[in-house]
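[Automated response] Your request has been received and processed.

Submitted sequence:
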Amino acid sequence: MAGLFASFEKFFLDQEWPVKVLAEQNLIVMGVQTETGSVEAVVQVYETSGQAVFHTLLPIKASEARRPAVMEFITRANFGMLLGNFELDLRDGEVRYRTTLLSPDAAPSMAQIGVVVFTNLSMMDRYRPGLESVIYSGTDPHEAVLTCEGRPVA
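Generated structure:
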């Protein structure tokens, strides 16, 4: 399906976000300032299947010693999520959030792209403080998730 890459590029230009377009790799890369700090965002487009994956990357990596706790945090946070999920690269400790758009038959609307992008950024903002507290301060992952979700810590 032609046009998925162009649709994402137009969306970001309409938002007036400075982007780096790597058309030959079907990538759009940008820095985004959110309420909790800056993140790197990457869109990978698969035109032939009508799929686009939007990732935001936490700008810090989990040390090897903290990765089991980060895995627990991510598993607890991901449970019940409807659109997207956190991922942890066990090789280097990279943490990212992923949302996906499937649009195999027609170019997506700007509203559809907005749901994918803004849901992603919102979830990174919501859970970032908890992730950072688990990585830096050794906070209990279960308690950190409860705090991020505004639920009482037992």
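Summary generated for your ticket: The CA atoms of residues 100 and 117 lie 9 Å apart. Residues 110-137 form the longest helix (28 residues).
If you did not submit this request, please reply to this message.
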